[in-house]
């Protein structure tokens, strides 16, 4: 039976036992929205094979970003590669950097770095594993570029044929404590001491390019260096440390954590057999408040709950390597964890969140369409999903990074590179920038009981909710979650029931229910007379707006926004 919006609130008391939040649910509401999209220029450019924030390159106070297209034929040279440096403010192209050699794969990896030349502008890294050096093919190179003018500051290269130096490059923090950021290069194909594909990770000084540390694989086919990046300060000694993935192929896969102070191995985070544990790694900062920076590791071939290759993401304590959170893919062959990354403080709770790609997820009949999931750093709960439905049938190759709060709305924005995207051409690739839309924006979150005041509320749903009915729900019991048509981020109580029925304090509110515009917008306000809320001093109310098509249950919910009653 379809129930109109004006009728469904009366069902809430009957359904209350069913509306309780399941364990580990996250506060919900709002949604990702695509803010910018850039497509590859030609077939098989593979734009988005690598993405990274770049720091503030153009000095406008907003993070900029990098996107690699490693198979692009720059100037007609096959697979020479390109890197696009774009403004985070509006997507304008700041620099276009191009490879010059046949099969150079310039842009196979990119990374922010920070200011290494002391000019006050952030610099950045580009890996080109196919670079020819001294006549030798595929030795590889990593170039350090000036953010000020896009010129090459210096480069580091491999030493032998098929080193593929530059396949993976990442910022490492200030490892040697000289005040200049350093970087790490992973060479997971490298033979070491007669051990085939043992792999190596090399840490370089950002200031001089000098080699600081070299971590060598010790086992045949260990593949050390598949994922390598700065770990933050995991042992709280004042030095930034390094985490390096090692995919053994036949042995137990793992991620190794090394000290930035002396290069010693601090501990090993071990997977469960050949589960690709360590295929992707990142530092998260201190998410559990113990003073030690924590880590996230992907294991894209992990099996769990009777499923095969559903994949896994694990968050580890930097202090002792214990597991803080574990999340698993929902279905066999989802391959969750093929790429993992910090998501910044996505949900605004002051704790860094994390995200991971699941390349094998199917959507609406599209095989291998893929998804990106964002999880709470505080609880490990799923916060949001970006489901890709543009194309299926080809295993995705997602790259991820967060780019900070581009719109200054209090929510982190993220980048997703999809090198296998087929629009406008087969394999041309796409880079997306997503921002979070909370759907409800208050002019204030506190009010003085003594002086009162008017608080404005902007209802800012997406255009998909155009001409839908909307209503503001209010809870006196705090944020939480109950499900009614959609997850609603409030604790269900009597006040929710009353406001869902349209029972608001007479004369205090305006526009708390009604019809959205064709673009999904509306405005409301709460006018609170001086002295009217004295009995509620110290109370915090939480509000969430819901929207539904006529005759349907809610299909959109905002985040929960507080209103604290002060003296």
Give a description of the structure.
This protein is mostly beta strands and 567 residues long. It has a domain at 8-27 and 439-566: Immunoglobulin-like (Sandwich), CATH 2.60.40. It contains two helices and 40 strands. The strands form ten sheets. Strands 30, 32, 36, 38, 39 and 40 form a six-stranded mixed β-sheet that branches. Strand 20 (312-316) and strand 21 (323-328) form a beta hairpin. The longest helix is centred in the last third of the chain and has 7 residues, at 494-500. The chain is elongated. 54% of the residues are buried. Mean pLDDT is 91; it is low at 1-26.
Give a brief rundown of this model.
The chain is mostly beta strands. The chain is 2% helix and 43% strand.
Class from helix and strand fractions: mainly beta
The parts where pLDDT drops under 50 for at least 5 residues are 1-26
Spatial separation of the terminal alpha carbons: 47 Å
Q: Which shape, going by the Cα principal axes?
A: elongated
Question: What is the makeup of the main sheet?
Answer: 6 strands, mixed
Cα radius of gyration in angstroms: 25 Å
Tell me the name of the CATH class of the domain at 8-27 and 439-566.
Mainly Beta
**How big a fraction of the residues is strand?**
35-45%
Mean pLDDT: 91
- Structure annotation, total helices: 2
* CATH fold naming of the domain at 8-27 and 439-566: Immunoglobulin-like
CATH level 4 superfamily of the domain at 8-27 and 439-566: Immunoglobulins
Helix-residue proportion: under 10%
At CATH level 2, the architecture of the domain at 8-27 and 439-566 is: Sandwich
The count of strands amounts to 40
């Amino acid at each position: 039976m379809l129930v109109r919006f004006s009728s469904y609130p009366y069902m809430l008391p009957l359904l209350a036992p069913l509306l309780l939040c399941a364990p580990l649910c996250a506060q919900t509401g709002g949604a990702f929205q695509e803010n910018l999209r850039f497509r590859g220029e030609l077939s098989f450019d593979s734009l988005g094979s690598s993405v990274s924030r770049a720091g503030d390159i153009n000095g406008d106070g907003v993070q900029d970003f990098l996107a690699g297209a490693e198979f692009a034929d720059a100037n007609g040279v096959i697979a020479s590669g390109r890197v696009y440096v774009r403004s985070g403010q509006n997507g304008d192209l700041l620099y276009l950097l191009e490879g010059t050699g046949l099969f150079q794969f310039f842009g196979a990896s990119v990374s922010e770095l920070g200011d290494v030349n002391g000019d006050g502008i952030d610099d950045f890294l580009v890996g080109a594993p196919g670079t020819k050096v001294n006549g030798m093919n595929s030795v590889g190179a990593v170039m350090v570029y000036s953010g000020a003018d896009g010129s090459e500051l210096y480069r580091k290269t491999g030493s032998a044929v098929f080193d593929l130096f530059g396949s993976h490059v990442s910022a490492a923090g200030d490892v040697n404590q000289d005040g200049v950021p350093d970087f790490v290069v992973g060479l997971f194909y490298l033979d070491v001491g007669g051990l085939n594909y043992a792999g190596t990770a090399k840490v370089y000084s950002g200031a001089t390019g000098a080699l600081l540390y070299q971590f060598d694989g010790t086992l045949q086919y260990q593949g050390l260096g598949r994922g390598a990046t700065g770990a933050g300060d995991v042992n709280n000694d004042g030095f930034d440390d390094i985490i390096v993935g090692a995919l053994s192929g036949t042995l137990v896969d793992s991620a190794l954590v090394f000290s930035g102070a002396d290069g010693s191995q601090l501990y090993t985070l071990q997977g469960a057999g050949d589960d690709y544990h360590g295929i992707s790694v990142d530092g998260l900062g201190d998410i559990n408040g113990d003073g030690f920076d924590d880590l996230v590791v992907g294991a894209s071939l992990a099996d769990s709950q009777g499923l095969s290759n559903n994949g896994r993401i694990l968050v580890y304590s930097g202090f002792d390597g214990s597991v803080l959170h574990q999340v698993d893919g929902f279905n066999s062959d989802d391959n969750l964890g093929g790429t993992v990354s910090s998501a910044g403080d996505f949900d605004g709770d002051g704790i860094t969140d994390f995200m991971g790609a699941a390349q094998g997820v199917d959507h609406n009949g599209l095989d291998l369409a893929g998804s990106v999931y964002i999880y709470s750093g505080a609880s490990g709960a799923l916060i949001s999903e970006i489901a890709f439905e543009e194309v299926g049938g080809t295993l995705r190759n997602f790259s991820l990074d967060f780019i900070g709060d581009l719109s200054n709305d209090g929510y982190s924005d993220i980048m997703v590179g999809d090198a296998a995207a087929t629009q406008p051409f087969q394999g041309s690739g796409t880079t997306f920038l997503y921002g979070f839309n909370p759907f409800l924006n208050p002019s204030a979150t506190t009010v003085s009981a003594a002086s009162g005041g008017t608080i404005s509320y902007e209802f800012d749903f997406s255009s998909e909710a155009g001409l839908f009915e909307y209503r503001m729900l209010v809870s006196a019991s705090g944020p939480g979650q109950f499900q009614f048509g959609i997850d609603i981020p409030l604790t269900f109580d009597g006040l929710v029931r009353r406001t869902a029925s349209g029972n608001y304090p007479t004369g205090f509110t305006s526009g708390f229910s009604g019809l959205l515009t064709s673009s999904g917008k509306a405005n409301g306000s709460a006018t609170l007379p001086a002295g009217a809320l004295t009995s509620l001093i110290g109370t915090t109310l939480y509000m969430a707006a819901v929207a539904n098509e006529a005759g349907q249950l809610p299909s959109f919910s905002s985040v929960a926004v507080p209103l604290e009653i002060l003296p």
